[in-house]
Amino acid sequence: MFRPNETHHQQDLFGLKARLPQHTWQLLKESLEYAFYEEVFCRIPEPVFAELYDDSPATRPNAPVNRLVGALILQHSRDWTFDELMDRLTFDVKVRAALGLFTLEETAFCRATLFNFQKRVREHMGKTGRDVFACVFDLLTGEQRERFGLSGEIQRCDSTQIGSNIRVFTRIELLVEVVLRMWRALGEAGQARHAERFQLYVKAKTSGHFLYRLRRSEFDATLQQLGEFYAWMVEALKAEYGETEIYRIVCRLFAEQFTRVEEKIAVRAKDEIRSDSLQSPDDLDATHRKKDGESFQGFVLHATETADPENPLQLVTDVAVAPNNRDDSRILHDRLPAMKEKTPDLVELHTDATYGSEDNDELEAELGIAQVQTAIRGHVSPAPMRIDRDENGGFQIRCFAGHTVQGQPTPTRFKAAFPASACAGCPFAESCPAQALTRGGRSYYFTEETVLRQARHRRLQELPEERRTLRANVEATMRQFNAPLRNGKLRTRGLHAAHRYGFLRAIGINFGRIYRYQRRLASAPREPAVSRPNAPLIPPFAIPAAGLLLCLSSFFRRVSASGAPLITPAAAFA
């Protein structure tokens, strides 16, 4: 049964506030962890998680959801292992306060509870396709944007590679590793029946040892032998092990690495292996991508943030995680409707060259978003044509030499016809993108997509100088997402874990920016306060009995500081 956690709003009589010295309690309230409690923990939308639990009142209440989610945000922000997280929750007073634990007696949760919670979220996403961590991020960010009055008219986006925590296998190693795991899944009875078949691979004990014993001249023959062995496993083990995950991995690997040619098994050439082929039996979602000469196995994280120069701070507004073989332009195309829904005021989006595409141009025009591209992808003509819409909705085309003609529609596209008199003796004839005609003159054909692409390429030059470099700062945001990665890899595996990392890390990044902004405001010089006369001393008998002791202590300190004769407690009651 789902039940929200409201207990942290009421301070315990014997909690931290009563136990800690006043100065220490004040330091705690000024700490980053207490700011996390106020800015994030208290604002976590717990009802989002209600659908993960049984609604029957007969079931046990859930562990505090805001405490579990808050702990995961802290873990991803501080790059803690689960051991480090549990240790902090047990012994670190500031971390406990960040999660609303203001007593020393209360236990946050046990490790199994946290793992079961993550399992619930993963299974819920598998059934519904809805990521509750994404909902938490969207709701928190929307509330923060509204509270700080942040404009979303100008935004910027970028992507970064995040590797899965998997071993990098060679082709033979991967095939042998799956064979060994299939062997372990057979059980004692199956191993006894198929011992002879598996003997060659089992005696090596590990895939690395098997590869180490091979000569390079034996690689091709070994791959062929593995292909035939995989074909046998697919047929012989289906009846008994067809429902197991490792058997499905065997079938997938056989289809990706081998093929049948006239009833014979053939090894696929390297260029036939797709980027979404299996990279490791430990992560079925990871894909392969080669970028700037470097290979990556895992996922790509795409993030968008506000970039209006008038904003007092900038926040991440959208996060998406996808297999890393997806092009940036496709990821942006999928995210544009959601970005516009979350920030309806978005009208200017700064990107790099990888985000430009005709599909994006059309969708952005439909959504009223102007994409500003900081670079142009692909070949750029040294003598480009300029296409502008006229007042009547038609097109005016001006060549690099300065001649202008009116665009003419054709059945499938548009045409610009330059007369022979304009093209005769043109110094840009060799580089002109228009086609030369036998009767003289030139013809240039274009489509609506060409017009949109040209407009995207020109927007950067048309912007004021101070807005032409806005996209550069998003590189720092990408470094924030990459900061906890070890050698570019997550601590976890799988697409769902990468999703969780992206959204929880983004919440932590936004909180850090808010905290630093508020600290700057607090440290800014203020106008001197107007001096006021000291309040009159209040005799202790005018205070309720419950606060008598505290009042007496304060009263004696103030009288002593004023220079009056010291009054003892006994004299006060004489």
Provide a descriptive summary of the structure in words:
- With 574 residues, this protein is of the alpha+beta class.
- It folds into five domains: 124 residues, no CATH class; 120 residues, Nucleotidyltransferase, domain 5; 102 residues, no CATH class; 69 residues, no CATH class; 28 residues, no CATH class.
- The chain is 45% helix and 13% strand.
- It has 22 helices and 15 strands.
- Helix 4 crosses helix 20, helix 9 packs antiparallel against helix 14 and helix 15 packs parallel to helix 16.
Give the averaged pLDDT, no decimals: 87
Q: Give the proportion of residues in helices.
A: 40-55%
Number of helices: 22
In total, the number of strands is 15
Instruction: Tell me the overall shape.
Output: flat
Structural class: alpha+beta
Classify the oligomer: single chain
Instruction: Give the C-alpha Rg.
Output: 33 Å
Give the CA-CA distance, first to last residue.
61 Å
- Unreliable parts: 537-543, 545-552, 564-574
The largest pleated sheet is described as: 6 strands, mixed
β-strand percent reads 5-15%
Number of domain units: 5
Give the topology, please.
Blueprint (H helix, E strand, L loop, with lengths): L15 H4 L2 H8 L2 H8 L25 H14 L3 H10 L1 H6 L12 H18 L3 H17 L5 E10 L7 H15 L1 H16 L4 H6 L6 H18 L1 H4 L3 H13 E4 L2 E4 L19 E5 L2 E13 L9 E8 L4 H15 L5 E4 L6 H10 L2 E4 L12 E4 L5 E4 L5 E3 L1 E2 L4 E5 L1 H4 L11 E2 L5 E5 L1 H15 L11 H9 L12 H29 L24 H14 L7 H4 L2
Parallel strand pairs: 1-7, 7-8
Antiparallel strand pairs: 1-5, 2-3, 4-5, 5-6, 9-10, 10-11, 12-13, 13-15, 14-15
